[in-house]
Amino acid sequence: MSSRREESVATPFKLWGGRYSKGTDHVLSKVNNSLSVDKRLYSEDLDGSIAYAKSLTEAKLLTQSEFKVICYGLETIRDEWEKGTIKLMPRDEDVHTVNERRLIEIVGPQIGGKLHTGRSRNEQVVVDMKLWMRKAVRDVLKQLSRLIDGITDAAERYLDVLMPGYTHMQKAQPVRFSHWILSYAFNFREDYQRIVEFAKRMNVLPLGTGALAGNPFNIDRHQLAKDLGFTGVTYNSMFTVSDRDFVVEFNFLCTLAAVHMSRLAEDLILYSTKEYNFLELSEEYTTGSSLMPQKRNPDSLELIRGISGSVFGQHCGLLMTLKGLPSTYNKDLQCDKSGMFAVYDQTALSLTLMTGVITTMRVDEERCLSALSYDMLATDMAYYLVRKGIPFREAHHISGEVVAFSENVKIPINKLTLEDLQDICPYFDETVSKLWNYENSVEQYSVVGGTSKRAVQEQIKLLKEFLVGCE
Q1: Which of 87, 236, 427, 449 could form a disulfide with 388 if both were Cys (CB 3.0 to 4.6 A apart)?
Q2: Which helix (H) or strand (E) holds 167?
């Protein structure tokens, strides 16, 4: 006859149920169950378990034979997950429970029950999340590089297109279309570089710290880190089990990329309207109206703009969860994964959409050029006077007087006579006529970071070199 203890091990109810005599309230069971969310971590959970079993073997807590049996069981479970044949039970609280239950069912409690020696779900979930996040980071970086590449190609394709540059939504100075769109490429390059730095910083092993106080079985955490591809280990067990800063930082970095995409989306939406008509979005990334058949709505870009708010909300939500927690692990932290997954999913979706929009849009060179107006060269007039020896502040004031005079007499600034200009400032001479050339205007900005052709080509070269380093 089997003992009560043997029966409880063979048919586990809860991982923590040994001291309980009553079942959990059905509402709490529902709220406590995170399997619908964290089953996404099944592969990472199995990877961590295999590595931990190896560590237990090296510490002489498992025999080589037991280690092989456990690995067989865990790989069998992986196959069930991948084929969709894994059977979930009502008592399964999370992915860790499922994997441990199935391991015990496959290899038996005497061997399967040893896997969690010294290990807690508190540390287990953190290592699973970090293993998953490494993959997520690689994917986000890959998609960011594709977007940067798409923008760089567009800049090269439309290198000679001139358009108005705006500040405060007002026409300001002539710029190259390529210069404008590359401004976002540099936003995304900064996003890429920040994420790379984050990936290095977060890649430290949490496993082997137990639930709170550490691991008493002399496992080699540094070797465990190497086995799982981590570059180091955490050095305080209480910090380890409560640390979600890496999720906060990941969410923030994705939020920042989403904000950059949202701003680019807003510009593209405006520039694709009939009022601007600087560019045309591909039909693949627009939708029609159910009532007005002439319309092509930039839904892809509007959705990117809307998704950015959701990503930001998930970021804020986790911060609010963390701000009032006492030290070490608290069940509030179960709420971390849904936001992490949503942030990644929505960011990846937006990056894919934005890359598609950029690589398929068509720019109308004539429309961009026709949107320029000669009053946008008022700053050039001030520079003209500076070159005549007039201090900039005075030159700026004189240029402003010319603009005011042009508006008062309702004559375009480039049509004012030399006499009109000399009445305002005697430093004007016949060479002022050379100002009224948009190409000359943009070409004067030839220093690094400017909108001249050479400066823009330098930006393109820099980004291409950056992209080679991303491969």
Answers
A1: 427
A2: strand 162-167
